[in-house]
Amino acid sequence: MSKKYEAFSGSRLQNYSLGEFDDQDYEQWRALIEQRTGLQLADHLRTYLQSGLNRRMQKHKITDYEEYLEFVTDERNGLREWSELVDSLTVQETQFFRHPASYQFLEDYLRNSIEQTELMRSIEIWSVGCSSGEESYSLAMLADKILSEVDCLTSYGVIGTDISTSALAKAKSGIFNARKAELIPEPFLDNIETLDNKIKIKQRIADRVCFARVNILDLDRVPIRDMDVIFCQNLLIYLRKWRRKEVVNRLAERLKVGGVLVLGLGEVTDWTHPKLRQVNCREVLAFERYRT
Ligand SMILES: C[S@@+](CC[C@H](N)C(=O)[O-])C[C@H]1O[C@@H](n2cnc3c(N)ncnc32)[C@H](O)[C@@H]1O
After folding, report:
1. What is the share, in percent, of the chain residues with pLDDT greater than 90?
2. Which helix (H) or strand (E) covers residue 86, if one does?
3. 3-class state of residue 42 by DSSP
4. Residue ranges of domains in the chain, CATH in brackets
5. How confident is the model at residue 4, as a pLDDT?
6. Residue with the nearest Cα to atom 7 of ligand 1?
7. Which atom belonging to ligand 1 lies closest to the Cα atom of 87?
8. What does the radius of gyration of the chain's CA atoms come to, in whole angstroms?
9. Is 62 helix (H, G, I), strand (E, B) or coil?
10. DSSP label at 31?
């Protein structure tokens, strides 16, 4: 902790004004965020970045951007603050069954794949950049429905990963505002229970879903592999195009033979991978790993 920071902590400093956020501060912060998360902050988001920083700085009674930078990059004490800052800067907007065409595609794919494989296995699904978990639970509800309709011993598991600890805490709770249920298609509604103005994911589904903090820039260190489905939507759009390709190249390596990578429409363009073929469907952006 810097000396300046110690001087500001405690109750002595009640009123203070923040220093100027000049071009140099902006460039420094923008570079740090992109280097650590991949998130590209366009120029029109400068005010957004500044207010995110200001909220955190006010909390710690720090008035100087340089000083706050020192604080969050401090190897011993900065990690927790960094995580809070990332929470406040990431867009966590999400919904259940957000892109219906992708879920329809997945339903057809999973039915087909269950018919073609051995009776006893587990279907492994990864929801990358899962935010507060609506996507991960939607995927679990879908797999659960399909498997309950066929006579087989196949089971399934979903892992949701995100960089945001607060989003993951919400995801783990399995509790959402009741308005969120409006987007859950009727056949899946029996997977939730209503509690006052909240909904809760039923235990049968929640037991199949787990969550973990993963930065997509650190995929090399992540032991998740042999996935049947990798679902990554509305995250790559925040990255530079070359970085999107790097990330999908790494995700592609985590698919098992015959597995699918489902992205958001338009999130990568001009991308090919020697082990994958693009699925021929205009409404979804999906790639299947060759079976041979
Ligand atoms: C807009 S939400 C998308 C949620 C969900 N996939 C959907 O489509 O509804 C984007 C999520 O990506 C996460 N994210 C941003 N940068 C990340 C990174 N470097 N590694 C992992 N997750 C990240 C954010 O925390 C946020 O929860």
Report:
1. 82
2. helix 78-89
3. coil
4. 3-89 (1.10.155.10), 100-289 (3.40.50.150)
5. 39
6. 94
7. 25
8. 21
9. coil
10. H
